[in-house]
Each structure stands twice: as C-alpha cells, then as structure tokens.
Design a protein that fits this description.
The complex is a heterodimer of chains A (261) and B (122). With 261 residues, chain A is an alpha/beta fold. Chain A is built from 9 helices and 7 strands, in the order αααβαβαββαβαββαα. Chain A has one domain (12-260): 3-Layer(aba) Sandwich (Rossmann fold), CATH 3.40.50.150. The longest helix of chain A has 14 residues, at 221-234. Chain B is α+β, with helices and mostly antiparallel strands. Chain B has a single domain (3-121), classed as Single Sheet (N-terminal domain of TfIIb). Helices cover 30% and strands 20% of the residues of chain B. Chain B has a 4-stranded antiparallel beta sheet with strand order 1-2-3-4. The chains are: A alpha/beta (261), B alpha+beta (122). Chain A binds chain B through residues 50, 75-78, 80, 84, 86, 89-90, 93, 102, 104-109, 112-118, 121, and chain B through 1-2, 4-5, 7-12, 19-20, 32, 34-35, 37, 39-40, 43-44, 47, 49, 106, 110-117.
C-alpha cells in the first residue's frame, strides 16, 4: 500500500488538473507519454537535465508529471512549456500551481521567440503533438483544434517541430515524441537519423481508437558517421536508406549500453 | 516569468535582425522564493547574456548585480545568491516585453508572455 502511494504521488493527479472548454483534457495519449517518462525515470535522473521543455503543454498534465516524477532528486532541473493556445498555458499554470510545481510558460507557436537564445541548451524535450490526420486547413486553427489537427497523415505540425527540436537540443539532449501509426513513425526516425539521431520506441500502446508509440531520440555520433558514410555510398549505390534502418539497430543497443551502464 | 526566461526570449518579427534583449515594461513584479541550486547556476552562467540580466533586474527594481562578471566570481557565495535571486526569484507578473527594433509589445499576463506573431509579422 505504501509503495502504491509513493507511485501515485510521482505524477500529476487528474482531480488537480485544471480544464477549459478550449483545452484538451488528459487522455490515453497523455497517459501513455507520462507512463513512458515514468518508465525512463532512472535514466532521466542519471541524465541530470538542466532545462526540460514541453512543446504543446495543453492541460499541463505532462509537464507537471515530469516535474513531479523527477522531483527533488533532479533539483537542478528547470522546466519550461509552450502552447499556441492561450487558454492552454493558463490551464497549465493552474495545474502546476495545484501540484505545487513551477514551469516557465510561453504562449507561442512551437518555440518561436526561444529558438535563438535557447539553441543547443535543452536537455529534455517532450512532445505530444497534434497527430490526428485532418484536412490541411484545420492546422494552425486556434483553440482546442490546435491540440489535435495534424494535417496530412497527422504530420504537418510534427514535421515543423522536428527541426526546432534539433536546434534546441543540447549535445546530450533527449527528445520524447508521441506518434500515431498513421504518422509513419519509422519515417520520422529516418528523418531524424539524417540529422544524426539514434532512436528507440520506448512504449507502444494500442487503445480502442489508435495505436500509439513513444519514441526517444538522442544525438549519436555513430549514427552521424553512418549517415555520412551512406551518403558517400549512395553516390555509387542507389539503395534506399530504409534497408539499413532503424530500430533496433546494433548501433542503438551499443550506444544504450555505453550510456546507461 | 522569470528573468531566466526573459534572457532566452527574442523578438522574431519578420525583418528584425536584432530582437534581443526585449525591453521590459513592468506593471507588477512579484518575488517567489526558489530553492538555491549552485550547480544549476553554474550551468546557466555561460548561457546568460549578462548585461541583459543586469538591465532587466534593474527594471524590476533589483540593482545588486555587478555590471561586469567573470567566471571566477562563481566561487563567491554572495555573488551566487544575487545571481540566483535575479535569475529565478524575480517574476514579471504583468507588463510587456518590447521589441528593441520595432517597439512591438508582447504582453505578459499572469506571468505568461505572449510571443505569438500577427500574420503580417511572420
């Protein structure tokens, strides 16, 4: 029983999560993302993050949970969160306050205004993007639509977030991204691989409506070298890069054992 | 909004080449105690634009930071306490951040800056 109580206190409590008609309430996707962070908690603590950023914080359930689950053991961590929806950052503020947590909030599109000065400085980025495939014109709508409208294959906003995350992540930075099968997570890993990131699916969950993946990305020198080599190879050999890709590749496991043992 | 966040924000309006630092118009400033963490301060020191922090904290009513710094000052507990207070404990609760080049105001309400651009600014 005692263990159960400790476990429960590690993440945000639904009854303390604030809400607003124009803000997406925590749902299966939010729970999956927080479960993935919980499962990776020991690694996160060992990572000693200075700056943690959530892009698209919605109700604040995820950033509050991250702050709680890292807690005092990560006392050097500073939390930030952005959302394009002004109601969402307001609700996030209330959710954080109800849990006695603090995160710096910015009402902005992805990380507009932060990209220049925060470049190469963020150790952990967490994203539950608008991933639902919708007509393209719904992307960029304000209010609650912005929390789910993902355009073609649900990729429009994800594809905007990835280069920003690449810019913001520190040398040791990690990105946790939630995706839907329809988003083609393998292709997302391939895109990130070209930027020098290794990746691993750290949680998969099928709900009645959707199949979710949480992918963790990190900069990997071996991946970068392999990509450069394959670019040289591809000049003479026109293989698609997919053949050599990505999870669970040996370089991933090699890197993991190096980082975490 | 902490001054750490202010130090990380710049104006992204189309055509603006020098959008940093944003000027602060302070209507309401609050102080909130934050646990002191030496490692965090030492980590952040290299990333901070010092003059922007000094000017911002003066605007917020705190003039204790030295104008010039060098990394050896991180050995001084007195310096670290002042740095900690300016960086993390002073909050701009209500007011605005002003683009240094265009004068465009980004409102700060309930401690949250609104950096969204209008269509003709993107």
């Amino acid at each position: 029983m005692q263990i159960l109580c400790i476990m429960l206190s590690d993440i945000a409590q639904i009854r303390l999560v604030s809400s607003h008609p124009e803000v997406y309430d925590p749902c299966d996707d939010s729970f999956a993302l927080v479960d993935a962070l919980l499962a990776d908690r020991a690694n996160l603590l060992e990572h000693h993050p200075s700056i943690c950023l959530e892009i698209g914080c919605g109700s604040g359930y995820v950033i509050t949970s991250l702050a709680l689950l890292l807690g005092k053991e990560a006392s050097g961590a500073h939390y930030m969160a952005t959302d394009i929806n002004p109601h969402a950052v307001g609700v996030t503020r209330e959710t954080l306050e109800a849990h006695g947590c603090h995160a710096e909030l910015v009402n902005t599109d992805i990380a507009l205004g932060l990209e220049k000065r925060l470049a190469r400085s963020v150790d952990v980025i967490v994203v539950n993007p608008p991933y639902v495939p919708t007509p393209e014109e719904e992307v960029g709508c304000f209010g609650i639509t912005s929390s789910w409208a993902g355009g073609e294959n649900g990729r429009s906003v994800i594809d905007k977030i990835l280069p920003v995350a690449d810019k913001l992540l520190s040398e040791k930075g990690w990105l946790y991204l939630l995706t839907l099968t329809a988003n083609n997570p393998l292709e997302i890993c391939l895109l990130m691989r070209k930027k020098g990131y290794a990746s691993r699916i750290i949680l998969q969950r099928s709900t009645e409506e959707e199949s979710l993946h949480i992918i963790k990305f990190w900069r990997d020198l071996d991946t970068l070298l392999e990509v450069k080599e394959s670019m040289v190879l591809n000049k003479t050999d026109n293989r698609t890069v997919t053949e050599s890709l990505p999870f669970p590749s040996f370089s991933v496991w090699r890197n993991l054992s190096r980082n975490f043992n | 909004m902490r001054l750490l966040t202010h130090n990380m924000l710049s104006s992204n309006i189309k055509g603006v080449t020098n959008g940093f630092p944003l000027l602060i118009e302070a209507e309401k400033v609050v102080e909130k105690a934050v646990d002191f963490n030496e490692d965090f301060l030492k980590n952040m020191f290299a990333k901070i634009e010092w003059k922007a922090l000094v000017d911002a904290s003066k605007t917020m009513g705190y003039a204790e930071l030295p104008d010039n710094v060098e990394s050896s000052m991180l050995d001084s507990d007195e310096f670290l306490q002042k740095f900690h207070h300016a960086l993390l404990e002073l909050h701009l609760e209500e007011g605005a951040l002003v683009c240094p080049e265009t004068g465009r105001k980004f409102p700060v309400s309930k401690g949250i800056p609104n950096m969204l651009l209008h269509e003709d600014e993107v």
